[in-house]
Amino acid sequence: MSDGFTRERAKALLEQWTASASLVKHGLSVSCCTEAYGVLEAERLGLSGAPFDAFVDKYAIAGLLHDFDYDRHPSLEEHPYVGVKFLREQGWPEEILHAILAHADYTGAGRDSHLDKALFACDELSGFLTACALVKPSKSIMDVEVAGVRKKMKDKAFARAVLREDITGGAELLGIPVEDHIGNCLRAMQAKAAELGLAGVPI
């Protein structure tokens, strides 16, 4: 993106505001999945070259910044409002700020744009896929399969903090079967396994 509102700057903000290593990884994984939907949508719109790159960057940046204020301001009264206010003062694009507001149910922000829908759809699922990888003996996302993820979703004791209805509801918002949604995010995370710390360990 132009005007200095880049992925690199977004990642730096995430790391600067976030002491929790797992929360930084969450931002990276949500960004990875949301970016994959940016690519699909840019292709559907027939974009190419610089417009394609700028379009996809918005999706990646929204993922990086959606929880960047959470470590410092975890209450419902403050997150994501404090972060959005800071970003607005810095001049970040409004469509990214709206998507960040819309990822939280309690803000009342409508999920209108494709970016809004993609960010919401990827938030809980990326965390669930990470949990699925970490219970594998290899601790590798490469060993996670869609069918296994669907099975784990039915196990209420597994990763119980993850809202299953947000995963299924996110797929509905995007207008695709939940299996396709899982597959899209799984492939995106597998492609960046090392960056996400999910490449695994020797068994």
Automatic annotation (TrEMBL):
A GO molecular-function descriptor: hydrolase activity
Gene3D superfamilies assigned to the protein according to its UniProt record, in alphabetical order: Hypothetical protein af1432
CDD domains listed in its UniProt record: HDc
Keywords, in A-Z order: Hydrolase
Domain HD: 42-126
Signal peptide extent: none
Coiled coil segments of this chain: none
Listed Pfam families: HD
Protein name, UniProt field: Predicted hydrolase, HD superfamily
Organism per entry: Granulicella pectinivorans
Keyword Hydrolase: yes
Species classification: Bacteria, Pseudomonadati, Acidobacteriota, Terriglobia, Terriglobales
